Amino acid sequence: MNNPNVNYQNMNNPNMINPNMNYQPYPHIMPPPQQQMGMFLNDWKSTLAPIKSCRIKQQFDDREFLADYIMGMKLDFNNKYLILDSATEILKFTAIENSECFNRNCFPKMCIPINMKILRHGKELARPDIVVEKDCSFTVCCLNRPIIKMYDFSDNNNKKLIGTIRTPFSCCSFKFDLFDASNKKIIYMDDTCCQISILCPCPFGPFKFSDYYLRDAKTNERIAHLQKEVPFLKFIKRDIDNYTLNFEDVKNPEWKMMLLAFSLFLDYIYYDTK
């Protein structure tokens, strides 16, 4: 029995194409989606890449204040730093030290083993973005100079070396060399330690700011600027300092993070007194 709703004449015509027949005789395999730039970069690199300048603020630790002024004990606890975008004053990263209390209070600064985690604001401490490490070393003058290693931990907590920071021995200057993962020197700093703000730090006038300039290892041209600021909290806690890091010509987010690690290490070694 013929169905009155079916046009058998059109079905028998081989030249007639049914507009409702949009399916294919075989399963259609969809091509894999194309990964577009900017859509998958939900990590620390995408957070740090657009930042041109950042402020590094050391957090005040009440325990050190109580131990020093109430109990009369010179105890040193783990440091914590807030890293903000200078343009917006929005918190971007937090750096938290995780060193043992005995090592911090009994060993010289150059010899202390260091473990510091850097993570984006709101991220769990157990899943850091960056880990900065230094082994315990018996450093005397030019012997066994400390080496800082910075690892990317964002890939399921798998270590990936980004670069290293070394401090050559110098009598009257601050020297730092920054190397990439292949041990190639990329950036260095060699500035005098005789600035008036270093010899007599105070939170006012010319005693408030110290300037450090980082240079390209090939051209010796200045590519970044670190400025140390002495806050008024210096009168309460002697080893607290703030920094402003201008990336200037540094665009690579990995090297921006290296400069952040360098800034924290500079504060830890030379300004974090016991």
From TrEMBL:
Protein name, as recorded: Phospholipid scramblase
GO molecular function terms listed in the Swiss-Prot or TrEMBL record: phospholipid scramblase activity
PANTHER family documented for this protein: PHOSPHOLIPID SCRAMBLASE, PHOSPHOLIPID SCRAMBLASE-RELATED
Similarity comment: family membership: Belongs to the phospholipid scramblase family.
Native source organism of the sequence: Plasmodium vinckei petteri
A GO term from the CC aspect: plasma membrane
Lineage: Eukaryota, Sar, Alveolata, Apicomplexa, Aconoidasida
Lineage: superkingdom: Eukaryota
InterPro entries, A to Z: Scramblase (IPR005552)
